[in-house]
Amino acid sequence: MNVPNLLTGCRFILIPVYLFVFYSGHIKTAFLVLLIAGLTDVLDGYIARTQQLVTQLGSMLDPLADKTMMIAVIVSLVFSKMIPWEAAIAIFIRDAGMIAGSAFFHFRGKKTVPANVMGKLTTVLYYIAILLITFQLPFAVFYLWFVIGVSFLTSFIYIFQFRSLNKKNMNHTL
Q1: What are the TM regions of this chain, as residue ranges (predicted)?
Q2: What is the pLDDT along the chain (174 residues), one digit of tens a residue?
Q3: Which of 42, 61, 65, 84 has the CA that lies 20 to 30 A from 116?
Q4: Rounded Cα distance, 101 and 105, in Å
């Protein structure tokens, strides 16, 4: 296991840490745990690209760690009534679809699409939304709905890239 994949593993470990801190009533500190997880995401991506340590496993685990953390955050915000359950369902449907689709095609031997600019932008926008919600700004939930819309657009872009990538691979094997 390489360093980027170990950092991704750390993000999985930070999920229960975030939940413990959040449910202990330290919501702003929990947001800090989320930021640390985000920094490990940036760091593992940087190391993987600059040191040529990008792996198929890492390409699958990295977004899984991000999405699992984000689901934990969204669930905690719903249960604390900081965001509406409808927003959580929309996020869950999108993320569950991305996770299931990625795993399904990975185990079928198809290439998965690594994180791209739109995916990274969506993640940053979610972090901003969570920051706004954490500090209970009045427009925070409206902004969250905007980010949910962007995330669905990003999913459609990933689907198009996935189809294009795997179509090319099929043409090369004929």
Answers
A1: 6-23, 68-93, 113-135, 141-160
A2: 899 999 999 999 999 999 999 999 999 999 999 999 999 999 998 999 899 998 888 877 887 898 889 889 999 999 999 999 999 999 999 988 887 877 777 787 777 676 678 888 998 999 999 999 999 999 999 999 999 999 999 988 888 888 787 776 555 544
A3: 84
A4: 6
- Other Cβ atoms less than 10 A from the Cβ of 13: the count is 11
Place of tokens 């689901």: 71
Nearest in space to 37 (alpha carbons), one of 14, 21, 20 = 14
- DSSP secondary structure letter of residue 138: T
Instruction: Find tokens 């993987």 and name the residue.
Output: 48
**Residue of 91, 6, 105 lying closest to 60 (CA atoms):** 105
As a residue count, the chain comes to 174
1.10.10.10, 1.20.120.1760, 3.40.50.300, 3.30.450.370: which CATH number matches 3-173? Answer: 1.20.120.1760
